[in-house]
Amino acid sequence: MTASPVRLVAEDAPDQPRPTTELTELYRGFEQELLVPLWTEIGDLMPAHPQSKAAPHLWRWDSLLPLARRAGELVPVGRGGERRAIALANPSLGGRPFASPTLWAAIQYLLPGEDAPEHRHTQHAFRFVVEGEGVWTVVGRDPVAMRRGDFLPQAGWNWHAHHNATSEPMAWIDGLDIPFQYATEAQFFEFGRDEVSEAERITPERSRSERLWGHPGLRPVGAEPSPAGTPLLAYRWEHTDRALTEQLELEAEGFAGVVEPGHAAVQFSHPGTGGDVLPTLRTQMHRVRRGAETAPRREVGSSVYQVFDGSGTVTIDGHTWTVGRGDLFVVPSWQSLSIRSEAGHTDSDSGALDLFRFSDAPVFEALHADRVQVEGISR
Amino acid sequence: MTASPVRLVAEDAPDQPRPTTELTELYRGFEQELLVPLWTEIGDLMPAHPQSKAAPHLWRWDSLLPLARRAGELVPVGRGGERRAIALANPSLGGRPFASPTLWAAIQYLLPGEDAPEHRHTQHAFRFVVEGEGVWTVVGRDPVAMRRGDFLPQAGWNWHAHHNATSEPMAWIDGLDIPFQYATEAQFFEFGRDEVSEAERITPERSRSERLWGHPGLRPVGAEPSPAGTPLLAYRWEHTDRALTEQLELEAEGFAGVVEPGHAAVQFSHPGTGGDVLPTLRTQMHRVRRGAETAPRREVGSSVYQVFDGSGTVTIDGHTWTVGRGDLFVVPSWQSLSIRSEAGHTDSDSGALDLFRFSDAPVFEALHADRVQVEGISR
Amino acid sequence: MTASPVRLVAEDAPDQPRPTTELTELYRGFEQELLVPLWTEIGDLMPAHPQSKAAPHLWRWDSLLPLARRAGELVPVGRGGERRAIALANPSLGGRPFASPTLWAAIQYLLPGEDAPEHRHTQHAFRFVVEGEGVWTVVGRDPVAMRRGDFLPQAGWNWHAHHNATSEPMAWIDGLDIPFQYATEAQFFEFGRDEVSEAERITPERSRSERLWGHPGLRPVGAEPSPAGTPLLAYRWEHTDRALTEQLELEAEGFAGVVEPGHAAVQFSHPGTGGDVLPTLRTQMHRVRRGAETAPRREVGSSVYQVFDGSGTVTIDGHTWTVGRGDLFVVPSWQSLSIRSEAGHTDSDSGALDLFRFSDAPVFEALHADRVQVEGISR
Amino acid sequence: MTASPVRLVAEDAPDQPRPTTELTELYRGFEQELLVPLWTEIGDLMPAHPQSKAAPHLWRWDSLLPLARRAGELVPVGRGGERRAIALANPSLGGRPFASPTLWAAIQYLLPGEDAPEHRHTQHAFRFVVEGEGVWTVVGRDPVAMRRGDFLPQAGWNWHAHHNATSEPMAWIDGLDIPFQYATEAQFFEFGRDEVSEAERITPERSRSERLWGHPGLRPVGAEPSPAGTPLLAYRWEHTDRALTEQLELEAEGFAGVVEPGHAAVQFSHPGTGGDVLPTLRTQMHRVRRGAETAPRREVGSSVYQVFDGSGTVTIDGHTWTVGRGDLFVVPSWQSLSIRSEAGHTDSDSGALDLFRFSDAPVFEALHADRVQVEGISR
């Protein structure tokens, strides 16, 4: 997957014609005319199944957070750099800030009293809070609180800024489709106002978007949302937690609802369409009951997970890691993932392992390219 | 619009050919061969705009409820009759139990300890509770509580029964698309079990459907709902009330959200699609602030409203009625409706007029036949 | 199904409460308050499966055509009556000009040199030509020729007129959703110009719509059609005939394509969506090979067929008719239909039985209410 | 865009914090933990508008064809290499065989009597024939002829092979979404039979797919196509040519239909959905009247064009090339394109410039990311 500016034809690929002077001359002709034959490349380009350029990898929260704090001391936030965000760089993607070929994940850090200036971009984004509180994201002039467990989607092309209204620094996770839009070249970006106005420095418990759209099964008759992104700007932990709890209770009572035994999951959804909150990103919260293990599962497309609570082990295509709160890991396309919830050093109330997940699944579903394989059973 | 078995051609229609012996003979030939010319019928069949066969009409709750109670004394509930339901019969629809040409609305009444036997049908249905509580609707063996302000949709072809688990009788409103399916002839019906099993006589606060689907913006990953009807079986008053309250608060703060000044409204929606809860029925709750008045509005299709709280006046194509809690009225297709909230004899807390509404709008939207006219402005 | 203005409760319905003085008084109370109980009506309103109010019936072309000709002599065409169209009146629908509860079918007749004035309406319409030629339908100022075998859809709210440019009278069939829109009350109508302009009296072989949209699998990049009706205004017999011929040839060669053995069929489709040409009407041409017989089939919704060529027998819920060119028959909802192609007095080239069909199927599909049963197998 | 395995942070990016020992240490910490800050990368990742990694470029048919012929002499076709296809390698994409970041375009060459073995893959593909004939593509055992001007789409996961049934070699163009699926990692591939069976060596004028699906506005009732790719396997030049001719005739008569003055275009479409023939590729044929020039136009996403006939000049973001038959050029995302038809050394009958085009537009439309700018007017 190296991409040198000058590239010789891979004559050592399998099933190649016997190298001769004439063939070498032909290949030189190809290069001169900016041509590359299929037969030397087909193994790389058209594999039997996805062979991800990315590697599975785990980033420890205990390593990320101190670096983010140190960046808080050394790096100002302002116009130009825009955000004090530090991205996961998959070890197999050439040092680029890409968690996977399509997904961006970063830790963002904001000091007491700091603002991150307003801008907008076509890249779809979200925030997820694994700990702390005190920052408000102002979206289209609507201030949205951020607290542990909250999920804040941010559809492309909405103006947004952040400000820390408290006396404590705060860190959280940003997810975007930056690598996907980078690969497909669909990005637009605009600077907004340099500072959040006084009127937007209010710190309401609930955003206007939640007051309008955050009621179960109810939509405002007077508002027509865009299908391109959810109008609901915050999904609160109390609701997510309750939904997961109730799925496991239903299972215990003998009723349907969980994904598989001991494994509850909810998907954040657009209340106007029922679909994904963002056109390119699927976002979910999973809970694995203590002692339970999920069936190994492969999917077309990649995912990033962050452990929200509890501890356990994750196995990705044969590699196993123990994980705890805040740890992030990436699952490349078509690599199998299994998750096991275990009693660990972190003593959580529920004893369950809670994981936030985001993936590029909506891209593949929109293009009829989705495939899933669970324990050898294709769907 | 009378439909006599033998029907003479309307020779007094406008723009008709001069009656002659030959013409009379021709018309007799038509009748013999079961033919009817367009030119005598076109005014009735193809009007400049919808001329409803139905009339606007108001039914008083104070008149309905005593009759329902009396039916409770005289008419048993059981297999065959199926339900102790008494339907609104539009005065212009020939005595048929049709509130409008497409909509059925009835008051249903169940005594303490009574069961209404299980059945299923393709007609889509819902319950709405204007007062009282104590009945559970059992849908696919999931018992769903019914209390004041609750809305319970019931998509076609789901098994369902009712039982009154308390020592008080209870009345509520049923809405169905019976006339629409009667006109288009798409009805199927099956009897289920004669009695609700002991296991289903439990009376949980929250149904399994709510535990799985009743969380704002969250859908269970392990369940795939049918697009043909909502998987959420109850929409509770506390959520509806809060959503309406918050819309009016947003308006007072200067933000968007209400339908028009002083007029908040929410639509009950399918959490898996964002669309209507039922394929043929749109259901909404409206709140008109005391003193406010809605702009006169015409729509293709008919609606039935029930006053949930407060009092005021409604004006339908020039007819004005004062209305109070429980009163039901029908708005025929393309007749203009305006609603005014007023301080009345009923002293409601909020001072607002709350109205439940259902209509056949999804039919017209699915067929690209919807039209709305507000104060002379077509959309 | 009679609809008298005053209607007594049907006390002779099955499973009724025992008649007593009190019950009679209760029922009188219902009538006074414009109420009707469900328990006396449920058998009619909620049958086990659709029990059509319509009857299966056959109209002979040999009877229709002379009456249309006679109307040509006696009844002028012009503003007010609008069209010299004579509609099929189902014998069980009370003398109304309705072939079925949702479908209108009429023979229309235009003399040499005559115009039918321009108008538009929300009712969706089409023309189908069983014999003759010489009339042009002018749709939005685009003149469209009509010849034997041609199908001309006419989506609602398009301006249209007809003119006979030849020295021969011409008859054809009109199909519309008049009864459906009459029942649901969604109709709008406007008069257009009284006469077709000279510029529109041209008689091109191909309409502009065909030049833009009539190429297989090709859509014009510069035009965006409405999803609410096909932009292609004529489907020519040469294409329909060839498609049917090729299906039967593929069958003879052992390949897939026919509906069932000996039974080819094509559906007229919207080139911009692939769906039905009209939101409420499905239109198809069927060809049954001589000697073949279709499997008995029930569908939710009704159909009207016209024999285009050949002869045979049709069996509808036990009634059998022999049919030949031009004959029209109606199949009510959920009644079973089987068609047999036979050598008859009409000696057709192909020896096959060709039938044009239209139905209300898109309504039921849009509302998730479609059902089909073939030889006892439900789909 | 270079992707070295080890990558230092770009400290020379604009708006960076002042380099200090502490900052250098922080950045070293980032690298150790596989992290990359946003603030050094944002200019590259989130530009104001798409800044394509690709360059506009032109490949001359006169250079491609001799190299393909020479490959025919030196390189066998068979299992492993699969196809004698030679791909355009954009000069700015590091020597990879990618015409743009999402599109693959190659010349394929098959000698008399040769077979290209059967396989299938999730990559969507098509063939377009600029000259010659004699090869049949066998798709799911259905042999499809290839002749000048024909377009043959090939939805992913269909078995397909080629065989040259004549005594002449043949070249054509393959288009695929290989780079897109490579970037997003969704590829599956399977080998089929090594040789085409005798039964498939027939060389019919029309494929079975055309006999079933190639009739304008008609779909077979007995077949249900996948929405993921067109069931029509060939779009013949005679239809494409006629459609373009008629658009320009309509323009000359004063009617709508062309894209802009002097510019006709048709889009190859899925007859079952009206949408694109392939989920990820849009394919069109354009005709620019001699002397006409298209308005400069930018689009999100990239395109490859091949001149089919005529000659002219193309201008891409300020670069101008004269072009003639067979020449291929690529237009990167958001670069403006204008095409001018000119009388050239190639004397074409029509005097028009005909261009085949394919692009990745369906990807962006499916994800709500499409944008177009024509002469400064955004849509």
What is the gyration radius of chain A calculated from CA atoms?
A: 23 Å
CATH architectural name of the largest domain in chain A: Sandwich
Largest beta sheet of chain A: what is the strand line-up?
2-20-17-22-15-14
User: How much β-strand is present in the residues of chain A?
Assistant: 25-35%
Total number of domains of chain A: 2
- Please write the CATH class name of the largest domain in chain A: Mainly Beta
Low-confidence stretches of chain A: 1-11
> What name goes with the CATH superfamily of the largest domain in chain A?
Jelly Rolls
Summarize the main sheet of chain A: 6 strands, antiparallel
| Percent range of helical residues of chain A | 10-25%
Number of strands of chain A: 24
- Cα-to-Cα separation, first versus last residue of chain A: 30 Å
The CATH topology of the largest domain in chain A is what? Jelly Rolls
What does it look like?
Chain A is α+β, with helices and mostly antiparallel strands. The first copy, chain A, has 2 domains: 57-213, Jelly Rolls (Sandwich); 237-378, Sandwich (Jelly Rolls). Helix content of chain A is 17%, strand content 31%. Chain A has helices spanning 21-32, 42-45, 61-74, 178-184, 208-213, 237-253, 361-366; strands spanning 35-37, 57-59, 85-88, 104-110, 115-121, 125-128, 133-139, 142-147, 151-154, 160-164, 170-176, 189-191, 218-220, 263-268, 282-288, 297-299, 303-309, 311-316, 319-323, 328-331, 337-342, 353-359, 372-374, 377-378. Chains A and D meet through helix 1, strand 1, helix 3, strand 3 and helix 4 of A and helix 1, strand 1, helix 3, strand 3 and helix 4 of D. Strand 1 of chain B pairs antiparallel with strand 3 of chain C, so a sheet runs across the interface.
